[in-house]
């Protein structure tokens, strides 16, 4: 199959940032009345895994041009932007990538972000998504720096299947050790994310449920998504979450649980015997755009309003061009106030973005999952 490398440089205009745009409280909502609550920050586009559904080796090979260090937002730039986002209503920041633990001195950034407070004085929910390979070594220092908790990705317990899926020969034991270290360090509650690809790892659903049941970790099953332009996504490889729940329920009876918040992406299911809970994230079969309060800041400082966007707004250019904090705040408010993205709701409908756009979508490793 021929695969294309998509350009990373599509840029949306920065709106006029003179004058004030936000309400006096600073809080902003978009055209669908969705507030700005979550910020995902991609701190590196590099990764030590080559997960087949995210960074396939045919594309992300030794000749692939990752971003040079000078293109990355510095920790000071990230902190400055994060401060503005928090003033606009962000309460939760997730560091991601690529593999965020590959970014040198990430603990320093965490220390800075942990000092931020919401307008009414609360600390942020500060978390990080990792493939777990470096977690055993880093869990304690991450916790000491002020990280609240972690989400760890793990797609199989079967070692040879896991090695095939990460395509970099990492063992399941590395990740399980990382999860244990994170638990010991108090980075809890730990969430474990499994991307389910029908025909590849769906036979691992029940073993994964069995393994994490009663462990305190919350296992979440994610529908394989058509994100990016390089993974050769096909609907036939999506296993609807309803079937995931059915399969687990046959072995370990489940009952639905109430969502913690309206913006929660996962639907919760509890084990009837009290063995904890699982979550299912039905990004494909049950779109949750109506409650999507997430903004994404790419590795090089572009603001994306949707995982499936083809272009981002160049905040790095704005700050390196000398904009004041007020101007940055106004620009971000205006960008959010103009947001109408709801890709998953429109997927497959007549008003869906054109197929031409598909080849231009940014990669998950760049925009942050
Ligand atoms: N490297 C870290 C990790 O794997 O946890 C953080 C970045 S990764 C892009 C974030 C999450 O996106 C992971 O849980 C990964 O499994 C998920 N992901 C990547 N590509 C995906 C796809 N096509 N569909 C669904 N989830 C995907
Ligand atoms: Fe790396 Fe995470 Fe993508 Fe896997 S899912 S290739 S670990 S960024
Ligand atoms: Fe949010 Fe876009 Fe995903 Fe919808 S498709 S939930 S708007 S990121």
UniProtKB/TrEMBL annotation:
**GO MF terms held by the record:** 4 iron, 4 sulfur cluster binding; cyclic pyranopterin monophosphate synthase activity; GTP 3',8'-cyclase activity; GTP binding; metal ion binding; S-adenosyl-L-methionine binding
Keyword hit for DNA-binding: no
Q: How is the cofactor bound?
A: Binds 2 [4Fe-4S] clusters. Binds 1 [4Fe-4S] cluster coordinated with 3 cysteines and an exchangeable S-adenosyl-L-methionine and 1 [4Fe-4S] cluster coordinated with 3 cysteines and the GTP-derived substrate.
Q: Name one Pfam family in it.
A: Mob_synth_C
Binding positions (S-adenosyl-L-methionine): 53, 98, 153, 225
Positions bound to [4Fe-4S] cluster 1: 47, 51, 54
Reactions catalysed, semicolon-separated, are: GTP + AH2 + S-adenosyl-L-methionine = (8S)-3',8-cyclo-7,8-dihydroguanosine 5'-triphosphate + 5'-deoxyadenosine + L-methionine + A + H(+)
InterPro entries, sorted: Aldolase_TIM (IPR013785), Elp3/MiaA/NifB-like_rSAM (IPR006638), MoaA (IPR013483), MoaA-like (IPR040064), MoaA_NifB_PqqE_Fe-S-bd_CS (IPR000385), MoaA_twitch (IPR010505), MoCo_biosynth_MoaA/MoaC (IPR050105), rSAM (IPR007197)
Question: EC no.?
Answer: 4.1.99.22
Query: Is Iron among this UniProt entry's keywords?
Result: yes
Q: Which family would the database say this protein is a member of?
A: Belongs to the radical SAM superfamily. MoaA family.
User: What name does this protein carry?
Assistant: GTP 3',8-cyclase
Species of origin reads: Caballeronia temeraria
Lineage at the top is:
Bacteria, Pseudomonadati, Pseudomonadota, Betaproteobacteria, Burkholderiales
């Amino acid at each position: 199959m021929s695969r294309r490398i998509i350009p990373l440089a599509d840029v949306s205009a920065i709106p006029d940032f003179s004058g004030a745009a936000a309400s006096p409280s600073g809080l902003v909502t978009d055209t669908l009345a969705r507030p700005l609550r979550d910020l995902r920050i991609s701190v590196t586009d590099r990764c030590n895994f080559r997960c087949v559904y995210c960074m396939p080796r045919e594309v992300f090979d030794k000749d692939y041009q990752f971003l040079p260090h000078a293109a990355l937002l510095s920790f000071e730039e990230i902190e400055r932007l994060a401060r503005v986002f928090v003033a606009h209503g962000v309460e939760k920041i997730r560091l991601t990538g690529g593999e965020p633990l590959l970014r040198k001195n990430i603990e320093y950034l965490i220390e800075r972000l942990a000092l931020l407070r919401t307008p009414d004085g609360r600390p942020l929910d500060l978390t990080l998504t990792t493939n777990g390979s470096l977690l055993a070594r880093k869990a304690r220092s991450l916790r000491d720096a002020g990280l609240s908790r972690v989400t760890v990705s793990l797609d199989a317990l079967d070692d040879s299947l896991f090695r095939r899926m990460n395509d970099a020969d990492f063992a399941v034991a590395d990740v399980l050790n990382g999860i244990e270290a994170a638990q010991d360090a108090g980075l809890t509650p730990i969430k474990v994310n499994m991307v389910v690809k029908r025909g590849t790892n769906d036979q691992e659903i029940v073993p994964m449920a069995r393994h994490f049941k009663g462990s305190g970790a919350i296992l979440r099953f994610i529908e394989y998504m058509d994100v990016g332009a390089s993974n050769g996504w096909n609907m036939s490889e999506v296993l609807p979450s309803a079937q995931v729940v059915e399969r687990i329920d046959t072995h370990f009876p489940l009952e639905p649980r109430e969502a913690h918040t309206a913006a929660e992406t996962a639907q919760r299911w509890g084990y009837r015997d009290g063995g904890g809970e699982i979550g299912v994230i039905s990004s494909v079969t049950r779109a949750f755009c109506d409650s999507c309060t997430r903004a994404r800041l790419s590795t090089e400082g572009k603001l994306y309003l949707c995982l499936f966007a083809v272009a981002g707004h160049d905040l790095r250019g704005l700050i390196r061009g000398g904009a004041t904090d007020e101007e940055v705040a106004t620009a971000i408010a205006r960008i959010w106030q103009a947001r109408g993205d709801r890709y998953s709701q429109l997927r497959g409908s007549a008003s869906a973005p054109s197929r031409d756009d598909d080849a231009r979508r940014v990669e998950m490793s760049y925009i942050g999952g």
